[in-house]
Amino acid sequence: MSSSELFRRRLWDTLGTALLAVVLALVVWVNATYQNDMPREGPFPDPIHIEVLNAPKGLILTNQADEYVSVRIKAFASSWSSLRASSFRATADWSGLSEGVRPVPVKVTCSDPTVTILSTQPESVYVQLERLAKQDATVRVELKDMDDMPLGYAVGSPQVEPESVTLEGPASAVESVAAVIAELSLAGQRTAVDRMVEVHPLDRDGKLVSSVRLTPEGVRVRLEIEKKLNYREVAVRARTKGQPARGYFVSSVGVEPDTVTVVGPPAIIAAMPGLVSVKGEVDVTRATRMLAERMELDLPEGVSLLTEREGQQSTVLVTVGIDAVTGGTTVELPLQARKLGAGLMVRLSVPTVDVILRGPAVLLDDLETDLLDAYVDIGGLGEGKHQVRTVVDILVAQDSELRLLVVASISPGYVEADIRRIPTPTPTATATSTPTPTPTATITPTLTMTPTVGVTATLTVTPTLGATPTLTLTATLGPLLEATVPPAGPTPTSTPTPTAELAAMVMTPGAGQETIAWLVARQAAGEPLALEVRIVERALPIQPPQAGVPAPRGEGAQAPRSEGAQARFPAKAWPA
User: What would the DSSP string read from start to end of 86-105?
Assistant: First the structure.
């Protein structure tokens, strides 16, 4: 054998040995890896969503087909921990399907090629397809709870925008829709309605057709609600007399209903106050528990409750709560109006409210009423007569201990607010100065009026060298009168200085009384400026005095008397 042949034989023997070693090593490695990461079979724990492919146009699914599928897989142990529901994709191909019920196979694949899908559950899904239909339908407004509306109100015809909606869904479901309804509740409604209302498709039996979709899903409904002329809603007040037994107090006074609707001749209804009382008072003398009594309303002749039958008495149920004394008291507070619109004035049907407070007796014994605020919120209300709720605030910010007090009851719970527009005033006022003997000066004040609340008097004197001082007089009582007297001319010399005098009067009408204020300012030569203010409250309204102004007065002249009905002031300074 030649040396070359011997070399080749040895080379093949060496290569064969090396190849066998590689194969044996690979077998050992695979076996070791397989032992450490053996494949495992089992159900995948999470359901997989079925994706629909090639859904035919013009058809819609009408049954509840399966949307998820479960799978059983085989995968290495290392792969199980990394698998998620998103690692799988389940599809159902609807291509070629027509109307009717059809089975569709479900195909599941995995993004990990080492994972084997052994089975799926279900293997197929059954789908029922139907022709897709669209149709327009007119919306009908259905008014609900009309029996719960306050009596004496008239309801107009509802306006709908848009008037129709589009129905879309299976043809059989669309055809079964008998009406598209927008339901609107009128319980307790006293004002016009303007709101968005959801619409619903109903079949002939009044049942909801859920498989039909509406476009749009809601409409705008407008509805006018007006109060009838010979009807009126008024608040009801009840009072108590006597004192409960020792150790007890009146904890609440309630009226059911606290507002009623009355009917009668339009002239009498228009003249009625916004608050009516019951006849008599509830006697709580020596009472130790709650009292309830039906009491007749004190109504004008010819006026009756709208709900009562002919011959039936006009009664309401009055309940008086009697509780053991843990601290309770009744206070009378002046009633104010808040958030009055610009250019408006308001008259409340009652000037005060009765407030029942509960809390520690030591706080109630020393309670100052200026820490309580009674008011009605008339924000957003326009001209006319309105029933508004009374509110009482305890000013805790000024005394933290007041947080222990509770407002138990407010009577009346509602009052009538008569809102009117402020008339444009055209007041005039003049005042003259009479020198002795010279010079002469004429003072012409400028008068303005502004609605305010409160009683204040402000006097400002600004001396001007060599001239008569400038006098500004401001009186605030209801409407505000402001008179400004400019410097008189010619410039006085060191000869005797004239005497100047200005008088002004304002009046505010209240519930059952009139409040009048006179303000007179005088200044004479060599004397300090004098201001006199008089305020009078009269039970009866004062007739507006005749037009004119007080005659010029010299030094020492007297101001108008408090009975100033005979005094003459500009008639246009009175509020209309």
Answer: GGEEEEEE-TT--SEEEEEE
- One domain for residues 263 and 349: yes
Say yes or no: 145 and 115 in one domain. no
The whole-angstrom separation of Cα 193 and Cα 160 is: 12
Q: pLDDT tens, 153-186?
A: 778 888 899 989 999 999 888 989 999 999 888 8
Report how far residue 85's alpha carbon sits from residue 537's, in angstroms, rounded to the nearest whole number.
87
Residues 221 and 155 in one domain: yes
The CA-atom distances, in angstroms, between 99 and each of 129, 494, 523 are 5, 117, 106
> How many other β-carbons are positioned within 10 Å of the β-carbon of residue 370?
9
- 441 and 415 within one domain: no
- If one counts the domains in the chain, the total is 5
Residue 249: its H or E element: strand 248-256
Q: How many Cβ atoms from other residues are within 10 Å of residue 350's Cβ?
A: 19
CB burial readout 55-94, b (16+ within 10 A) else e:
eeeebbbbeebeeebbbebebbeebeeebeeebbebbbeb
CA distances 182 to 151, 185, 192, 200, 286, Å, are: 24, 10, 17, 7, 56
Answer yes or no: do 281 and 390 share one domain: yes
Predicted model pTM? 0.36
- SS3 state of residue 396: helix
What is the C-alpha separation between 340 and 342, in angstroms, rounded? 7
For the chain, what percent of residues have pLDDT higher than 70? 68
Q: pLDDT tens digits, residue range 391-403?
A: 999 988 888 878 8
In this structure, the chain runs to a length of: 576
